[in-house]
Design a protein that fits this description.
Elements: H1 2-19, H2 31-41, H3 44-50, E1 58-59, E2 70-74, H4 104-110, H5 113-129, E3 134-136, H6 159-174, E4 179-185, E5 198-200, H7 203-210, H8 212-219, E6 225-228, E7 232-233, E8 236-237, H9 242-252, E9 258-260, H10 269-274, H11 303-310, H12 316-332, H13 347-360, E10 362-366, E11 387-390, H14 415-422, E12 427-430, H15 448-464, E13 467-473, H16 496-506, E14 510-515, E15 530-533, H17 541-550, H18 571-574, E16 586-588, H19 597-602, E17 620-622, E18 626-627, E19 631-632, E20 638-646, E21 652-662, E22 673-682, E23 687-694, E24 701-703, E25 708-710, E26 714-721, E27 727-735
Parallel strand pairs: 2-3, 3-4, 4-6, 5-7, 5-16, 6-9, 11-12, 11-13, 13-14, 14-15, 19-27
Antiparallel strand pairs: 1-2, 7-8, 10-15, 17-20, 18-20, 20-23, 21-22, 21-26, 24-25, 26-27
Bound molecules: beta-D-glucopyranose.
């Protein structure tokens, strides 16, 4: 009763203020009107303040107008633990533990856009609960070399695959009022010298290989923000780069969001003002550890920018453009009152993480351990006495380290825990090797006698075991899968190759499970019967690994990048040091458009495990493809259907891959390029059709002379495969 009275008295006041609500606060007004209204109320000082950080992960709103600050967080595999206001230390909060989702390489290996959308949605819900407006991810830098320390945060070597997966991640996230920040635009394809290396490459490589996934993120995903890369591109830092930001991103692609620097990626006020940067973050740090006495007023887009604006050295229009974008981002996120509250570490989020793990794990090899036996996987525990798990990665927290993607998960199921729960009382463990602690800038050295004794212990136990599951790979230490440095060798580290060989010598029933974000050298591959690529799978890693090894989940992941036999077989490395890693100042992408499988195919250098490869516990037979026509015109299309039958005895999923090759062209073209895929769920004995529509766009190359995409009439081939080398049917067709 009392409350009703108060409300009744307050009502006239509320209505009066609602009528006077300024346009920028009116959620029913069109967003562009709100932007213009807010802009018109702001002082020069307030506008400049918006263009740079005020803390490590916050940028100012307009306090006087009630426009809130923007809060950002890494990204891209979960919401990072809270960082101090103005240094890189963790704030030590007890309410910032979250779900760690699988790394983006694992997501890419699912070849499942619906799972990518679920990923974006679940991550956004966690971001909302943690009160974040902008999530710093996903990353779509193309996998160029297996030595890049940050490949685990990206979606592989193919621009089409990365593009298909990045779009639903963004929409799944932004539907919740949380902005994606696609990174690192562009050509940050190695960590060595990332702050200054100058990348030179052809227009074709730029437009055909390195930009398409970003373009999809902007044009189809409508990403609200994008992060500039640390490196230089054609002589200019990527964070204020006239070609990449003004011309391509904003003019050609019509990007209406905010360009955010990588942390410390701005280097010049004039360039930052003129060449497309909107928000400067983290200046004077290396993005990982170093701090300085500079205040945010000293940022390039702070006082120095205001001086240039006041003296007329750079036009006011540059500032208004930046602030419009920042306001737009703010209205879409922080000031969106209709967004949900979010939640963290829920059963639903764990289910998403587990499902992505289940579908991302790639079965690389599955042979019998004896000449007449069955394939080793899935494991039938009744056939063995003890099952021995060996390896540091079976128990390691692989969310610690790695750089900015480091996470503080609420729960972790390690592979060992997953297997022990599955087969209680049956599993033994030996560490086998050790990797040391994750630290920035340096790595622990493991003394030889420690390595020897761990190996000997594991080999002794393996001799007595019925089956050995080795869980190794890389980790998030410096010089492994870690930001700020590249891997220094292609081989597995910490004596693992020797350990694997010795385990195999004493026990033929050996399953190798690799947790990595990169391809590794496998000189032992021919000797080991079963090899599983299980990436970094986050909180529920051990569940997904146990699901696949036991067969409760039939593996369906396919490699999103090639695993070369030798490092020299990789295109970037083939051309020597100027190609990778460069001479410390400059670098030339000499392999041009022939990246990944495009190189292996065209140069006839087979990969050990090719792009698109991944086995199943069942078998699939591809029927004869049926095409709606055998020729098309420049505005036509051809629809192709392929029946696929599950000829085994288990439910399974098969990703049918569609590649197109141009038989004769006036320019160099790869033998074939991925242009479509269809992931089918097929019951035993059933047949399901994969479909694909060939459009003229799928036939085009980038023509630098006309700065446009061109399809040359003539003969083409459609390759339909279970991987980039396991081609089950080809279909010639013609563009008239
Ligand atoms: C990384 C970014 C990250 C940023 C903020 C930089 O070192 O390159 O990917 O978002 O730090 O942590």
């Amino acid at each position: 009763m009392k409350y009703q009275l108060i409300i009744a008295m307050a009502l006239p006041l509320l209505t009066a203020s609602a009528a006077e609500l300024p346009v920028y606060l009116d959620e029913n007004a069109p967003i562009e009107q709100r932007v213009e209204d807010a802009l018109s109320r702001m002082t020069l000082r307030e506008k400049v303040a918006m263009c740079h950080a005020e803390g490590k992960f916050a940028s100012p709103g307009v306090a006087r107008l009630g426009i809130p600050d923007l809060w950002m967080s890494d990204g891209p595999h979960g919401v990072r633990a809270e960082i101090n206001w103005n240094d890189w230390g963790y704030a030590g909060r007890t309410n910032d533990s979250i779900t760690a989702f699988p790394a983006l390489t694992a997501l890419a290996a699912t070849w499942n856009p619906a799972l990518s959308e679920a990923y974006g949605n679940a991550l956004a819900e966690e971001a909302l609960y943690r009160e974040k407006d902008v999530m710093l991810g996903p990353g779509v830098n193309i996998y160029r070399t297996p030595l890049n320390g940050r490949n685990f945060e990206y979606m592989g070597e193919d621009p089409y695959l990365a593009g298909e997966l990045v779009v639903p991640y963004i929409t799944g996230m932004q539907d919740n009022g949380v902005a994606a920040c696609v990174k690192h635009y562009a050509l940050n394809n190695q960590e060595l010298w990332r702050g200054h290396i100058n990348v030179e490459l052809s227009d074709r490589a730029l437009h055909e290989i390195y930009l398409p996934a970003f373009k999809r993120a902007v044009e189809d995903g409508k990403s609200w923000s994008i992060m500039g890369a640390y490196n230089k591109v054609r002589g200019q830092h990527a964070c204020h780069n006239e070609l990449l930001l003004n011309k391509i991103l904003k003019d050609d692609w019509g990007f209406d969001g905010v360009v955010i620097t990588d942390w410390g990626g701005a280097h010049d006020t004039r360039e930052a003002a003129l060449y497309g940067l909107d928000l400067e973050m983290g200046s004077f740090t290396n993005g990982l550890t170093s701090e300085s006495e500079f205040t945010t007023d000293d940022y390039y887009l702070a006082n120095p920018y205001q001086k240039m604006l006041e003296s007329g050295e750079v036009p006011m229009s540059t500032l208004d453009d930046k602030v419009r974008r920042l306001l737009r981002l703010n209205f879409r996120t922080a000031m969106n009152r209709r967004k949900p509250y979010g939640s963290v570490a829920t059963p639903a989020h764990y289910a998403v993480a587990e499902e992505i793990g289940n579908e991302g794990i790639v079965l690389l090899k599955n042979a019998p351990s004896t000449p007449k036996g069955q394939p080793l996987l899935p494991i039938d525990p009744s056939r063995y006495g003890k099952i021995l798990v060996v390896g540091d990665n079976a128990t390691r927290n692989l969310m610690a380290g790695g750089g900015s993607s480091e996470l503080k998960p609420k729960d972790i199921v390690t592979p060992l825990a997953g297997l022990e729960t599955l087969w209680p009382g049956k599993v033994e463990y030996a560490r086998g090797y050790m990797a040391g602690r994750p630290m920035y800038g340096h790595a622990d050295v493991i003394p030889a006698h420690v390595e020897d004794s761990l190996r000997r212990q594991a080999v002794d136990m393996a001799r007595e075991a019925g089956l050995v599951i080795f869980v190794g790979g890389l980790n998030k230490n410096h010089f492994q899968d870690c930001e700020g440095g590249d891997r220094q060798e292609f081989a597995l580290p910490f004596g693992q190759p020797k350990l694997i060989e010795e385990l195999r010598a004493v026990n033929p029933n050996l399953v190798v499970v690799l947790l990595t974000g990169n391809a590794v050298e496998m000189p032992w591959a021919d000797k080991v019967p079963a090899i599983v690529q299980a990436w970094y799978l986050g909180s529920m890693a051990g569940k997904s690994v146990a699901n696949v090894l036991s067969g409760s989940v039939n593996p369906s992941g396919k490699l999103p990048f090639s695993f070369p036999r030798r490092l020299e077989d990789n295109a970037a490395h083939h051309f020597g040091t100027l190609s990778y890693p460069g001479d410390s100042i400059n670098q030339e992408y000499k392999e041009d458009i022939l990246v990944g499988y495009r190189w292996h195919d065209t140069k006839k250098i087979p990969a050990l495990y090719p792009f698109g490869h991944g086995l199943s516990y069942t078998t699939f037979e591809y029927g004869k493809p049926v095409a709606s026509a055998r020729s098309m015109t420049a505005d036509g299309s051809i629809t192709v259907r392929v029946p696929v039958t599950n000829t085994g005895s288990r439910d399974g999923k098969e990703t049918v891959q569609f590649y197109i090759g141009d038989d004769k062209a006036s320019v160099i073209r790869p033998v074939k390029e991925l242009k479509g895929f269809d992931k089918l769920s097929i019951a035993p004995g059933a047949t399901v059709e994969a479909t694909f529509t060939i459009t003229p766009d799928a036939l085009k190359f980038y023509d630098p002379a006309s700065a446009s995409w061109v399809a040359e009439p003539g003969k083409f081939k459609l390759y339909i495969g279970s991987s980039s080398t396991d081609i089950r049917a080809t279909l010639p067709f013609e563009l008239k």
